[in-house]
Amino acid sequence: MQTATNAEAGPVRPEDERLGLAANLAYGMQHILTMYGGIVAVPLIVGQAAGLSPADIGLLITASLFAGGVATILQTIGLPFFGCQLPLVQGVSFAGVATMIAISGNGGIQAIFGAVIVSSLLGLLITPIFSRITRFFPPLVAGIVITTIGLTLMPVAGSWAMGGDRNAADYGSPANILLAGLTLAIVLLLSKVGNAAISRLSILLALVIGTAIAYATGMTDFSQVGQGPVFALPQIFHFGYPTFGVAATISMFIVILVTLVETSADIFAVGEIVETKVDGRRLGDGLRADMLSSMLAPVVGSFTQSAFAQNVGLVAVTGVKSRYVVATGGLILVALGLFPVMGRIVAAIPSPVLGGAGIVLFGTVAASGIRTLSKVDYANNMNLIIVATSIGFGTIPIVLPTFYHQFPAWVETIFHSGISSSALMAITLNLLFNHFTAGNSDQPSVFGAAAERTIRYTDIAQLEDGDYFMDGRLYDANGNEVPLVRPASH
């Protein structure tokens, strides 16, 4: 009877694995430590640009932690029609930083919140369109996007390794880079240990050991931990009620479109890593959770929510695929939002330590994309040039962040992200060459032909029945040699 019941229920998905409370807490904390620096950076930058006081900026950070935790729980556990039930950590999206700073210059923080609410509602309404594009995300497109995600995040790891704060006197100092290198070495050594638990916790243990080394050498301190309240509830509309403007909403809606593209890429990426099925319905549920979280976040003082790509890398590194681990991480984020003292403890982890671990994490994302691209068929088609062009296009804003500064703001908003740039290019070229095949030549270009030896149809048409090759010469059915015309030299 038990066997029949299990058979009816279907196979257990990898993401539904239950590891127990202790493992969930350990691996969940590892996820939060990985993304903590990123989730507090956006409210810090936007709050300073909006002219908020240090106390109010602190409330923005606390609100972002709380909202990210709730969004993570919704995405991983899910409700009917909301949540993809995959191990995705949610948090404040970096995609809208420039746009929100521009909006704050005209209407303050209240105008940002109003634009986020309305544009997220519009995003929620159009998710059915995005949920029907799964067939346009074959391994070719998914691999390009996953690879670019890893490449996009590498400058973040490098900046962390140098100290994180570009205005600091010790930014890029040998001491900072040495601490990052030491943390990287610890990750690698712990990963080599035969014990599976230690290997899976290598990132978390390296962060703890690296922080301990930094504390012993005077590179960090915990003096700020005891300052401020221990417990604080999120305050509803603490910064005033949102204001609404057409221009602000339109500019923010462009950000929402970019967020939908990036979240789609992250959902497909983690699905590939977990080795589970991601269909149109599941993608739609994930995007709806993203938009609902973004729409409600301003109520407590936060901004647009999106999946964190660096945590996709952590899933790949550790091999821990359980969504309940990430849901536990969401609970930890909620706790950090309710207990500011915990946030101050995590904030004491020095940036170089995060940078050393980030090299492994973000590099693993790129490696996962390369592994996906290895499954692509490159024989006599244009897939090679699609990969080359898309990754090259996505790399431009990574190596030259000012490349689009002279373009209109909406162009820069869309293409300043290497992830969205490569995703849009990969989707477009895949449609052009692999779906809209009318007009495609039967003679592949030099890029397609370079993949392997090819023979033109026109050449084959010149052969007659009984023709054969021997020792590099062509003979007809009677054994007479057929002269070959050599190609003209160039």
From TrEMBL:
Compartment(s) of residence: Cell membrane
Pfam families (alphabetical): Xan_ur_permease
Organism from which the protein derives: Paracoccus versutus (Thiobacillus versutus)
Membrane topology value: Multi-pass membrane protein
Keyword annotations of the record: Cell membrane, Membrane, Transmembrane, Transmembrane helix, Transport
Taxon lineage: Bacteria, Pseudomonadati, Pseudomonadota, Alphaproteobacteria, Rhodobacterales
Keyword Metal-binding part of the UniProt annotation: no
Transmembrane segments: 57-74, 86-103, 109-130, 137-161, 173-190, 197-216, 236-261, 324-347, 353-373, 385-407, 413-433
Family: Belongs to the nucleobase:cation symporter-2 (NCS2) (TC 2.A.40) family.
Matching InterPro entries: NCS2, UacT-like, Xan_ur_permease
Signal sequence annotation: none
Highest taxon of the lineage: Bacteria
MF terms (GO), sorted A to Z: xanthine transmembrane transporter activity
GO CC list: plasma membrane
Presence of the UniProt keyword Cell membrane in the record: yes
Name recorded for this polypeptide: Xanthine permease
